[in-house]
Amino acid sequence: MGETRQPHLNGAYYGPSIPPPSKSYHRPGRGGSGCCCNPFSCCCSCIANCICTCICQIVFTILVIVGIIVLVCWLIFRPNTIKFYATDASLTEFNFNNNTLHYNLALNLTIRNPNKRIGIYYDRIEARAFYEGQRFDSVTLQPFYQGHKSTHSLKAEFKGQNVVLLGNKELSNYNNNKNSGMYDIEVILYLRTRLKFGFVKSTKVKPKIECDLKIPLHSNGTSSGTYESKRCDFDWR
Fold first, then answer.
1. What pLDDT was estimated at residue 84?
2. pLDDT band with cut points at 50, 70 and 90 for residue 70
3. What is an example of a Pfam family matching this protein (predicted)?
4. Mean pLDDT in the chain?
């Protein structure tokens, strides 16, 4: 680079000339790293936070109110479990041959409602009979209403023949039952019920009642044993 001499400086060299500073212009809102505060975005954020807070408070309040109502109802009514008993059973035929089961079973059931302020509507009662896990018959019983602190009796009758597939283990159990004269039969009640609290009726509840029974065979006027009353298991499902 050539040297620049200025005559009026008496021949002295003071380096290259310094160019004047360039002017820069900035337009807000167009590119760059500048930041502009938008009052509308802040306002929308505050509104959204307020809405979320209000919704959470409303939901929490509803849950608390529902919990208090349930607690008060429980303290007032104090519901107790309904008790089911298989009080008596008569088995006059139970013969398995060529994958076909011939049977004649009558079962007496007792239902006890121990509650003082709760009534029960039994809208549907289906009784199913099983042997070695295989269902061999089902019957539908008469619907009824059971009042406070009352006992109701039902009778389920299973009679006929049906195809039942038993494996080697199940067939061995059948032979043992046949030799002893006591048969392991399971009866399950599938219910569709509603509870009545004063003038209020609940939605439908579908409990299941399981009765694991040992029933003696009565044949030709003689019995191979004595049937013992059995309390059934209650499952609200």
1. 97
2. low
3. LEA_2
4. 83
CA distances for 224 relative to 105, 183, 187, angstroms = 15, 10, 21
Amino acid occupying residue 222: T
Helix (H) or strand (E) holding 53: helix 39-77
Give the tokens for residue 153.
């009796």
Nearest CA to 209 out of 128, 138, 145, 153 is that of 128
The answer to whether 97 touches 154, Cβ cutoff 8 Å, is no
Burial class from Cβ neighbours inside 10 Å (0-12, 13-18, 19+) for residue 103 reads buried
3-state helix, strand, coil in the chain (%, to 5): 25, 45, 30
The total number of residues shown for the chain amounts to: 237
User: Which tokens sit at 192?
Assistant: 């569709």
What is the 3 state secondary structure string of 79-118?
CCCCEEEEEEEEEEEEEEECCEEEEEEEEEEEEEECCCCE
